[in-house]
Every structure is written in C-alpha cells, then in structure tokens.
User: What shape does this take?
Amino acid sequence: MIESDFWVVFAMLIYFVVVVVIGFVYARRSNSSSEEYFLGGRGLGPWLTALSAEASDMSGWLLMGLPGVAYFTGASDAMWTAIGLVIGTYLNWKFVAKRLRKYSEKAGNAITVPDFFSNRFHDKKHILMTIAAVIILLFFTIYTASCFVTVGKLFATLFGWDYAAMMVIGAIIVFLYTFMGGYLSVCTTDLVQGTLMFCALVTIFVGSVTAAGGVENTVAFLQSIPGFLSATQIATPVLDEGGAQVMIDGLPQFGDANTYGIITIVSGLAWGLGYFGMPQVLIRFMSIRHSDEIKKSRLIAMIWLVVSMSAAVCIGLIGRAYLPDAFATQAAAESVFIVLAQILLPSFFCGLVVSGIFAAAMSSSSSYLLISGSAVATNIFKGLIKRDATDRQVMIVARVTLTCILVLGCFLAMDQNSSIFNIVSYAWAGFGASFGPLMLCALYWRRTTLPGAIAGMLTGAATVIIWNNFIAPLGGWFAVYELLPGFVLALLVIIVVSKLTPEPSKEVTDDFDTYMELDV
Assistant: This one.
C-alpha cells in the first residue's frame, strides 16, 4: 500500500472504531426492552432527532447519486429533485411530526409504523400491520442494497480494490453495530455521520470551486454545454454503442439540449411526496422525547438539508468543469465526490471526508435493517405468530431478520454498474405511495376506515410496481415518476372505500378526537 493510501485507510479506520464503540456502549441499554431497542425509549433530543432523521434519509444518494446526475446531464434533473425534497421535508416536519408523536403514544404506545397503523384503526386481526410489514421488507431490502452499492463503489474508486469484497465487508460493519446497539446506537452514530456528511460536502464544494478556476471560469465552461445549467432543458451526452459518452481530444461530446418539460419537472417535485411515507423518518418523529421540541428539530433539519443538497448538486456541476472526461456513464459519475476528495485534500483528511460517504450509507442502511427487523419481529412474529412472545424472543427474531436482509441486500448489490439514484427512486416511490396517503388520512381525517386503509396501502404499492415496469416505458405523460400516480390513486381509494364502508367505531373516533390533547 502506498503512503497516501495508508493515511486514507488510517483515517477511515478511526471512524469505523468510533461507530463500533458506540454500538457497544448502547448495547446494554438497548437490550433492556424491545421499546429501547426499536425506539430508544422515546428519549431523543431535538439535535439527535433532526440529524438522525436527515442522515438516515439521505444515505449515499446525497453524496454520490445526486452529484452523479448533476455531472452527467446538468442542473435540471438534480435541481428539481432537490427542490421537491426540500419542500417535502418541511411539510413533513410541519404537518406530520407533532401529530404522529402524540398519536403514536395514544394508539397503544406504538413503537413501529405498522404498529401505529394497526392500533390507530383498532385492527384486531392485524391485517394492516402484516401488509405494512411486508411492504417494509420488500422496499427496504432494495433500499439496503443501494447503500451497499455505495460502499462497494467507494472502496473500488479509492483504492482499486475488488468491488464485491469491499461491499460485503462494509455491509458486515453496518450489521454489527446495528445488531448490537439497536436504535440508540443508530441515532447516535447518525448524529456523528450527519455532522461529517455536512462538513464533507461544504469542504469539497469550496475546494472544487477554487480548483476549477473560480466561479466565472466554471460557469463559462458549463454554459458552453447546451442546456447544462438550464432549469428547463437537460443536457444530452453523445453515447457510443456501449452506452459510454463519446470523448474527442479530452472533451465530452454533447448533442442539442432536450426540453425538460412539465412532466419531468412534476416528477422531480413529486419526490417530496415520498416523505409522508418514509418509515426511517417517521420513526424519528415518534421517538423524540417531547412534541414541543419538534419546532427546534425542524429548524435544524432544514438548515442541514438546504446547505447539504445545494452543495451536492453544485459538486456534480463543478466536477464536470474540473474533470470533464473522467466519467463516461452516469453510474461512473456517481464517484465524482470521491475523486474530487482524492485530488483536493491531503490523504488523512481525504480519509475523513470520504468517511462521510461511508457514514451516509451506514446511517441509512442501519435504519433500514433495524426497521425491517422490527417489522418482522414485532408486527409479524409477535403480532401474528406468537402473541405472548417475550422481549428476548422478539429481539432474537429481529436479529435473525437482520441477517437475512444483509445476505439478500449483498446479493442485490453485486452489480457495481447499478445506479444508486435509480435504485433509491424506486424504493422511495414504493414507501411514499404505500404509506404517505394513509399517514395523512390517519392523522387528519377521522372518517378513515380500516378497509379504506388496507385498500389504499395495497393500491399505492401495486401502482408503483405496475407503473414503473409496464406504464412508464410507454413514454409521454405516462413517463411521470411512479410516486405521483401511486400517491394520488392510493389517496382516492382510501377516500372512496372509507365513504362506502361503515363509519369507524366510537373507540376509534374517541382516540382521534382526543390524541392532540396529550402532553407528550
């Protein structure tokens, strides 16, 4: 190993040791009960809640997927997606967080999202809980795979090491501290990782502007590429037969810009709808120690998100000016952040900064693993199979589930040419359409019925799968991001079925009418 590689690895090892130690520190407390393991005893402060929610939400997508899109096709796609996510984040914190914190405690002290849905509608047969748990398993396995792809690409790009081997090793590190420490270790490492991600993005953004010759030179170069900096056009790389961008004399070749029409703008903005159904974010709302602290958490989260997303998009754009011919495909371009860190920073600091990428993947995949484990252990095992199960049995089942998802996620992530952006967009749509409309109805509409909830959840999940695979390829208006039709259809089905079925029982409506009175 050359000396520069040694210092990069040394810096990253320091980081790995810190997160594993955190897992050990919280292991004893987390194992005291299933509520501690899955929800941290509802004791998170506003800083921990905010940074944990955003770090687990953004994952490696923020540091690799988003800059990769900006690098390859210009500002429009990345920008409209970022705007949609910022709007969705704010609305979620504003209209869901406080109500969910209160209602989840009123609804039988629910400690998972499926628990909340089941208890909210007094689902004695646990049908809704089971469907929600299956949806979580399906889409979080896909989500987890995207995080493992991030880890594999990171080490393959940095050191030229074998992608598959490093992807598996990174996945095992995530598994170990999630397995040991549960929710508290995940959230505490999220605080560290969220801070590291923020600093990494700002550092590389400032450094890359300087290295590219300043703002004026960078903008002048990017303006020479048709549609690259436009909000209503998208750049079109000229590709060879193998799908790689054509380079002539070290310069990437582009055709005429394509129009970035209303359908694609709406698709980008529709990403924001996904927040209402993201279990890894919703669970943070449920775990804050008091609903009065949500306003402070919202401010912290929004500042972190706006600065981080702006920096991520700009890094992709500046990377095209500084390294115009470095990446020939969008999947390869997702490594632009890593390469810039290698070029711009001393080895030790490069190791710390690129740990931000590993941090992002770890914070998200650990949340996905933990929520998936809780879905199987709490909602399927204890909810359906063995209702008198002890906390110890529940946690054993959860950890077995973690192991299974780890293996399946690694299998799905074996293809290093996978696009992180595309993988995440599919899982994001699945959760947003399945859980989002129901979450809003559960919190705001007392007339929502159990049959309406079941029908809406199934409609959302089915629409995303069908639309993505069979309808979107038709093009035109059908090419809209599958989250939007899935969300709208699920919401309509909830309303129609609820209106056609008997009103909820008095027990259900009494809970709804009084949950906001709780001082929690």
